[in-house]
UniProtKB/TrEMBL annotation:
Pfam hit, one: Sigma54_activat
Record-level GO BP terms: phosphorelay signal transduction system; regulation of DNA-templated transcription
Domain Sigma-54 factor interaction: 136-365
Signal peptide region: none
Protein name: Two-component system, NtrC family, response regulator PilR
Domain Response regulatory: 5-119
InterPro entries in UniProt: AAA+_ATPase (IPR003593), AAA_lid_NorR (IPR058031), CheY-like_superfamily (IPR011006), Homeodomain-like_sf (IPR009057), HTH_Fis (IPR002197), P-loop_NTPase (IPR027417), Sig_transdc_resp-reg_receiver (IPR001789), Sigma_54_int (IPR002078)
Keyword Acyltransferase tagged: no
GO MF annotation list: ATP binding; sequence-specific DNA binding
Organism phylogeny: Bacteria, Pseudomonadati, Pseudomonadota, Gammaproteobacteria, Steroidobacterales
Positions carrying 4-aspartylphosphate: D54
Domain of life of the organism encoding this protein: Bacteria
Amino acid sequence: MTKPRALIVDDEPDIRELLAITLERMNLEVTAAATLETAIHALRSGSFDLCLTDMRLPDGDGLDLVQWIQTHAPQTPVAVITAHGNVETAVRALKLGAFDFISKPLDIAALRKLITATLKLGESSPKNGQPPRIKLSGQSRAMEQLREMIARVARSQAPVHIYGESGTGKELVAHLIHDAGVRRDGPFVPVNCGAIPSELMESELFGHKKGSFTGAIADKQGLIQSAEGGTLFLDEIADLPLHMQVKLLRVIQEKRVRPVGESKEIPIDVRILSATHKNLAAQVADGKFREDLFYRINVIEIRVPPLRERREDIDELVQSILARLAPQIGNDALHLTEAARRALRDYHFPGNVRELENVLERAATLCVNDAIDVGDLQLRPKVTQTDTSISSTVAPGEPLGDALEDIERDAIVRALEQTRYNKTKAAELLGMTFRSLRYRIKKLGIE
Ligand SMILES: Nc1ncnc2c1ncn2[C@@H]1O[C@H](COP(=O)(O)OP(=O)(O)OP(=O)(O)O)[C@@H](O)[C@H]1O
């Protein structure tokens, strides 16, 4: 079997030797270059399975080489060696298409992991030609572009930030990036940053040592470490408290974690994907999100469009959701009437694909004779100014207090349904705090 070929580019002979020995021990055939020019010459005269380049070269810099490779040898994955703590360069390299980066002083174990991951890029995906575990439905141009983007970012280790309205499929996209990439055999660990109480956040994410605080009765591994070799998906990252943002930044920069109560740091090999339905740039402008962390997690950005911007996908989504529901409810003859189809195509879907799933699930249990009709869908009219105008809903003689409570109850129930009973998101939608929503829910007897 032919050995994979690696090109290493560094002007320091000691580093070249260290890299060459490490890679040769991993059974790679190594070509070494000390300058940008010799590296380009080598790339022109043969093909390589990977390239590892230092940033500072006597006749140019590593970024030039990353760019050259993207244009002339895009099939060759390239990783860069950056000076310790030089995040800016690492981010620029990743944005230009580098697969990953490693900082000096070189940690041999980390280097080996990086090389192994890079070589996996050449393997066919998914594993053993199996069909993908999950699928993105829809043939609209927007979905096609999303699929292309997923395939592209799956070839890199760069942090990706996914944004879009609630229920558009951000977590699904994160999962697909994981499944299509070299980490697909490792774990995919989703974490909802908005759902972990602030005081437990550090121990949940970083883990803790036994006895480090009251209640820490045993050592506990954190979520970040449990994603070792795989992907950590930080959902609702905008909800991460500021003190945790600082700690997360360190994790990303240093690729190390320190569990609570532990004296030493543990190296980690985790790809970080994140998502939010909020405007993270606006959160930065408001001082609610650290700019340095924003810059670090947002190396590549993916927007998932709302369903109303790709109505042509609705029919296919309906088909795949009904096909999934059929075995659950023991009915594979379920279908939509033409009027119901039209109603769905015209609907504004504030809760996006998740709302479509909920609508169909409810309709499937309500409908008679296997045919889902408009009435079974129970679509909610668009909320307009007049919908909430009191005068139109208070009947003459009705006590004002009761009428107001009805309006409030209705608005809260609607917000809860739209957000799939996520109170944090429902509170946001209603423009009130989580605490006051919880209070109103109790007072109005909604639960
Ligand atoms: N294009 C799609 N094809 C098939 N299913 C989809 C698609 N988009 C979304 N879904 C489904 O819709 C539901 C909501 O998706 P997901 O949880 O990924 O949304 P989200 O944007 O992460 O939501 P939130 O912001 O509330 O966390 C899931 O069940 C998901 O599988």
